[in-house]
Amino acid sequence: MAPIPGSGLAKGLAVTLRTMTKKTVTAQYPDVQPELPPRTRGVIALFEENCTVCMLCARECPDWCIYIDSHKETVPPAAPGGRERSRNVLDRFAIDFSLCMYCGICIEVCPFDALFWTPEFEYAETDIHELTHERDKLREWMWTVPAPPALDPGAEEPKEIAAARKTADKLAAELAAEQAAEAERAAQAPRAEEAGQPDSPAAPPSGPQEGRS
Hints:
Layout (H helix, E strand, L loop, with lengths): L6 H15 L21 E4 L9 H5 L5 E10 L9 E12 L8 H5 L5 E4 L13 E2 L1 H6 L18 H38 L17
Antiparallel strand pairs: 1-4, 2-3, 3-5
């Protein structure tokens, strides 16, 4: 069946009419903050304690907007006779948000969870140089990182939590065993003292004794 001439135009005008008669809602920003989705890509925050200066984020960034400087320090051995180790110490971590395209690759490739998304988006500047956030500024954004969503009731327990719980249970079992051993030693101590005391001398028989012939 051939379409009726003008039916497409009529459908378009119907959509326009419905939109015109619908009540409009104006977002009262900035007086009223918008309700953003929990996974909003606003700005990147840095958790410096987790950063090992592996440089993965800087190498994978397609815009080359991450700047990292570091130096090596020698760590003394943990035990006598051990070997000294060297570690990387972070000197600078900066992100130029005037170049960043918010792809999130740096957050995805970080193996130690040092970078996080935060929904904050109000960081516009009049000077483009101010859009380069150094590590102190990136650390301040950590206070705005939302809490992770709750796990599904049927999901497996994270490996980190399972390992930590296993270690805690092992330590608790060792502590309980030590306390039980101490209690047993304390209970056996009076018995050992009683067993170690010499026998008391026998009392002389009572009554008259016959002399020997």
